[in-house]
Specification:
With 468 residues, the chain is an alpha/beta fold. It folds into four domains: 234 residues, Molybdenum Cofactor Biosythetic Enzyme, Chain A; 52 residues, Alpha-Beta Complex (Molybdopterin biosynthesis moea protein, domain 2), CATH 3.90.105; 79 residues, Molybdopterin biosynthesis moeA protein, domain 3, CATH 2.170.190.11; 70 residues, Beta Barrel (Beta-clip). The chain has seven helices and 28 strands. The strands form seven sheets. A six-stranded mixed beta sheet has the order 9-6-8-7-11-10, with no helix packed on it. Strands 18-15-19-23-22-20 form a six-stranded mixed beta sheet, with helices on both faces. Strand 22 and strand 23 form a beta hairpin. Helix 1 packs across helix 6. The longest helix has 20 residues. The protein is elongated, with a radius of gyration of 30 Å.
Length: 468
């Protein structure tokens, strides 16, 4: 039976609660093939696996848009437009000089207007009569009566006369509204706020932007076998997921608020501590990034603490059915609603997607590094895009021809790291086992290979890799 749940923090109040939904996690048969950090399980031990396309769509649809907020331009970088950006003014707001030179009226030669140059920032320059010219700076407002701007390098002055080739009417004048008119749509909602977007918004008259904030993500890295510095020794291995997950979350538009390094915590139930004979690995290691619940002693308490100040919780490891795989028992104890319980994909079969009782989504990454990457691409990326309203890169439509055939899995989708040596070409790089990162480290994208009895060839779908 699900245990009671601790109240969510005030920051979560806008999410609603899902605690009244019946838990949908079914106990798994003991003795199924290796769990986290030890390889993906065989489909026979994972009878509820969701097909890859359905899992990808489910993750996107599971996300509720984060509440919008208005921020000063200087604070909006990295967030996502919650509303379309429309021009509050014509751009440019008046006719301006595109080059340094002379504003001229009619054909030359011209008599220089006394009184000095027209500079940027002058509000209302004097009208220019036919046959006259006046020096003008780039960006300055064009005097009424100007027919063109003669570039400085094309003209010469002798006393009060300007000579040079007659410019075409309108030459080197940026007319009012050349870029856009007031009310024109500039960018759609869902656009990431980059430095260029900030510049465009400022030019269009904005002081504040209405944005959806970067999702806050809490990460729990599980496993007694993990080392966080030095060489593998004594049957223990280096944690490869912890160092890479934060930068990838940032590249996906999220804000990793904590990456906690935990041992194989007992699943527990809310309000309990480790039982007799159970041990809890230290929550911080050398060089570890920490945050979260402080004195929590069970995975349930760690999950509650993580969800209290995050928009998404990730766990790494522990999603299998082995003796120390405690993510499923912890979710059952919480009464969480599991919507994706394993995915028919290689690597990454035992990934999962759940909703915690306070409405916060949770993604369980497998413990093998490339399997975790598969889960990031399959579940985390579309979920983050759903939270912010961002479209997925390329909308999943990018295609390329494989430069050589690649073996497929008979029942599951395969995700294979590839280089993109030329437009429209995808070169498999190898090293695609669930525990390997060598291939993904040199890859430009990941090819999605549907299941089948013969090697894949021809055009395949590509998934973009998040880049910092």
């Amino acid at each position: 039976m699900p245990g009671p749940t601790a109240p969510a923090g005030a920051r979560r109040a806008d999410r609603g609660a899902a605690g009244d939904a019946a838990p949908t996690v079914a106990p798994r048969p003991d003795g199924s093939a290796a769990g986290r950090h030890r390889g993906d399980r065989d489909p026979a031990g994972h009878p509820h696996a969701t097909d890859w396309e359905t899992a990808h769509r489910t993750a996107r649809r599971a996300a509720r848009h984060l509440p919008a907020r208005a921020l000063p331009l200087a604070e909006a970088i990295g967030h996502t437009l919650a509303e379309p950006l429309t021009a509050l003014t014509d751009l440019p707001a008046f006719d301006t000089a595109a080059m340094d030179g002379w504003a001229v009226s009619g054909p030359g030669p011209w008599t220089l207007e006394p009184g000095g140059a027209v500079l940027a920032g002058h509000d209302r320059p004097s009208p220019l009569a036919d046959g006259l010219a006046v020096p003008i700076a780039t960006g300055a407002r064009i005097p009424p009566g100007t027919t063109a701007v003669l570039r400085r390098e094309r003209g010469r002055t002798v006393a009060d006369r300007l000579r040079g080739p007659n410019p075409s009417p309108g030459a080197d004048i940026r007319p009012r509204g050349q870029e856009c008119r007031t009310g024109a749509g500039l960018l759609p909602a869902g656009t990431p706020v980059t430095p260029a977007v900030l510049g465009l918004a400022a030019a269009a008259g904005y002081d504040r932007l209405t944005v959806r904030p970067r999702p806050r993500v809490a990460v729990l890295v599980l496993g007694d076998e993990l080392l966080h510095r030095g060489l593998p020794t004594g049957g223990r291995i280096r944690d490869a997921i912890g160092p890479m997950i934060g930068p990838w979350l940032t590249a996906l538009g999220a804000e990793p608020v904590s990456v906690r390094l935990l041992g194989d915590l007992p699943a527990g139930s809310p309000g309990t501590t480790a039982g007799a004979g159970e041990s809890t690995a230290p929550r911080t290691g050398a060089g570890a990034r920490t945050g979260g619940s402080g004195g929590a002693d069970t995975l349930v308490e760690e999950l509650l603490a993580a969800a209290d100040d995050a928009d998404l919780v990730l766990t790494s490891g522990g999603t299998g059915a082995g003796p120390v795989d405690r993510v499923h028992p912890a979710l059952r104890a919480l009464g969480a609603r599991v919507t994706v319980d394993g995915v028919a994909v290689r690597p990454g079969h035992p990934m999962l997607l759940a909703e915690l009782p306070n409405g916060i989504p949770l993604v369980g990454l497998p413990g093998n590094p490339l399997a975790a990457v598969s889960a990031v691409l399959t579940l985390v990326a579309p979920l983050l895009h759903g939270l912010t309203g961002r479209p997925e890169p390329g909308a999943g439509t990018a295609r390329a021809h494989l430069t050589s055939p690649v073996s497929r899995h008979p029942r599951d989708v395969r995700l294979v790291p590839v280089r993109l040596p030329a437009p429209g070409e995808a070169e498999p790089v190898g090293w695609a086992g669930p525990a390997m990162l060598r291939g993904i480290a040199v890859a430009d994208a990941v090819a999605v290979l549907p299941p089948g009895p013969v090697p894949a060839a021809g055009r395949v779908r590509l998934l973009e890799l998040p880049r910092p």
